[in-house]
Amino acid sequence: MSLNVLVVDDSSVMRAMIIKTIRMSGLDLGDVYQAANGKEGLEAARDNWVDLVIADINMPVMNGEEMIDEMKADPETAGIPTIVISTEGSETRIERLQQKGITFIHKPFTPEIIKDSIRSLTGIGDGNGP
Ligand SMILES: [Mg+2]
Predict the structure, then answer these.
(1) 32 alpha carbon to ligand 1 midpoint, in Å?
(2) 15, 11, 2, 98: which is closest to 58 by C-alpha?
(3) CATH of 3-122, one of 3.40.190.10, 3.40.120.10, 2.70.150.10, 3.40.50.2300
(4) Centre of ligand 1 from the C-alpha of residue 9, in Å
């Protein structure tokens, strides 16, 4: 089963790096959507069938945590597995995100960490299917 992924990061270089990492990890990537801030990410999550969201925290217009809160408040997007990839150093904020069911990955990341997180969140790529 292929995985439709939405990557939300204000850095286009980081978005490209994340997408390349997922491709290299051997996961079956379906449609890939990109957004440069939380507001665009929210719109993309509402307008498309998205299986997984990978989001940054620090972004202009709407940050990643605000976007996640909006997603959780909307039944249509509340259940989408979400990974946050960030340089965020605040343990308080990281714990708050984890309590909301978010998987947190520190930048810089390795392909293995991304792949393992996606597998455990979605069950896709472990050979057993979802
Ligand atoms: Mg950023």
Answers:
(1) 19
(2) 11
(3) 3.40.50.2300
(4) 6
